[in-house]
Design brief:
By secondary structure, this protein is an alpha+beta fold. It is built from eleven helices and ten strands. A four-stranded mixed sheet has the order 1-4-5-8. It has a four-stranded antiparallel sheet with strand order 2-3-7-6, with no helix packed on it. The structure holds flavin-adenine dinucleotide. Flavin-adenine dinucleotide binds next to strand 1, strand 3 and helix 11.
Length: 392
């Protein structure tokens, strides 16, 4: 066991850090202003420009297979990159990647959807949640009924990230009601790739944070048979795989943001003088700094372990749930302490802390709430799917 980054990982971390500090951090005030004016933090053209700049520096498709022009650096490297990028509030992600489940596409679908998504020509979104089915994903109601060579989709999806801008959606619908019931929702549902032009529409949902997900409305949307992603009636597995991937990623984001925030608090505490001394000399402040540092470190190891386990080709779902649960809650505790250390200034819109405070609250809700992660972790242990100490 070697608990340090390799030379290559260290080099990538350093290069990404430089990119974030040079290209992204200077845009933070623009992002805050744009968001205050109700615009996207980063205009789509600006995002593309930055992605191409990163491409020139060799950062493109960090975890995308080489046959699709990616660097295929693996999940640990992906985690390292995500943690660095999360040190800025600028909503940037490197180009050259696609949703994990889009790789289940057949050759024709790959040409039409996967490759254009990797190349940044098409935008995707994934839709499982419905107004009556969030945590309880097996309770979805959207139906797809076969009519000749087509499937006719009816229903509503909600809270779909990227749903306002996506060119196509990977949507989960019931294709066999009886099988859906008898298998308790595990079978009888299928994932369809549906172009916006096929007829679904989106409506934005405004939230307390920077995220603006969408409701997607399907009214007799006709989808050709060849647009089934993966196997007919086995789409639920794909849904779980998409959500599972997103989980440890949330943990990674929380670690990056918390590290940046804690550094801000340390710097501020050394400068802010009250009653004749910098507040950094007060035990009350030191304990907030110490608790935050310990929790960040712990969350980082959980995230890296989840990513490492995936790189070994092992099932990482238990660890991903742990990384998400602890990471998301750690992020919320740290941003709260950092705001406290900044006093009144922390609460103002002149500093980015309140923006992170609003964003962090989402981490405990989407991609499976705190309660659902606890339920999964406890169930795995009680039913013996995972043994204590199994991984380390
Ligand atoms: C900004 C945002 C982006 C999102 N992006 C996507 C996306 O791209 N695609 C997608 O498909 N979905 C997306 N979602 C949906 C998200 O995954 C769900 O909101 C989440 O899973 C919770 O579902 P719910 O909102 O229906 O809450 P509910 O399931 O109704 O839960 C309500 C409360 O009850 C608790 N609860 C539920 N069941 C149990 C139980 N068995 N035991 C104990 N407590 C329980 C929950 O933890 C929660 O506290 C997004 C949501 C948001 C807010």
């Amino acid at each position: 066991m070697y608990l340090r980054l390799t030379d290559e990982q260290r080099m990538v971390q350093k290069a990404i850090r430089k990119f974030v500090e040079k290209e992204l951090v200077p845009l933070e005030n623009d992002v805050l202003r744009n968001e205050r004016e109700g615009k996207p933090g980063l205009a789509p053209e600006k995002l593309k420009e930055l992605q191409f700049k990163a491409k020139e520096a060799g950062f493109w498709g960090i975890n995308t297979p080489e046959e699709y022009g990616g660097a295929n650096l693996g999940h640990v490297m992906q985690a390292i990159v995500l943690m660095e990028v999360a040190k800025t509030l600028v909503p940037f992600q490197f180009g050259g990647s696609a949703d994990n489940i889009l790789y289940y596409a057949n050759e024709e679908q790959k040409k039409k959807y996967l490759i254009p998504t990797i190349n940044g020509e098409k935008k995707s979104c994934f839709a499982m949640t419905e107004p009556g089915a969030g945590s309880d994903t097996r309770n979805i109601k959207m139906t797809a009924v076969k009519d000749g060579d087509e499937w006719v989709l009816n229903g509503e999806k909600t809270f779909i990230t990227g749903g306002n801008d996506a060119d196509f959606v990977m949507v989960i619908a019931i294709t066999d009601k009886e099988r859906h019931q008898t298998t308790n929702g595990r079978e009888g549902v299928t994932c369809f790739i549906v172009d916006r032009e096929m007829g679904w529409r989106s409506e934005p949902i405004h939230t307390m944070g920077p995220a603006t997900p969408a409701s997607l409305i399907f009214e007799n949307v006709r989808v050709p048979e060849e647009n089934i992603l993966g196997e007919l009636h086995y789409g639920y597995k794909l849904g779980l795989e998409w959500i599972g991937y997103a989980r440890w990623v949330v943990g990674a984001r929380a670690v990056g943001a918390a590290e940046r925030l804690l550094q801000m608090a340390i710097d501020y505490a050394k400068e802010r003088v009250t009653f004749g001394k910098p507040i950094a000399e007060r035990q009350a402040i030191q304990w907030m700094i110490a608790d935050s540092a310990v929790e960040i470190e712990a969350a980082k190891w959980l995230v890296l372990n989840a990513a490492f386990t995936l790189d070994q080709g092992e099932d990482n779902r238990h660890l991903a749930s742990m990384a998400k649960l602890f990471g998301a809650n750690m992020g919320n505790r740290v941003v709260d302490r950092v705001m406290q250390i900044h006093g009144g200034m922390g609460y103002t819109k002149e500093m980015p802390i309140e923006r992170w405070y609003r964003e962090a609250r989402l981490w405990r809700i989407y991609d499976g709430t705190d309660e659902i992660q606890r339920l999964i972790i406890a169930r795995n242990l009680i039913k013996g799917h995972v043994k204590l100490g199994q991984f380390l």
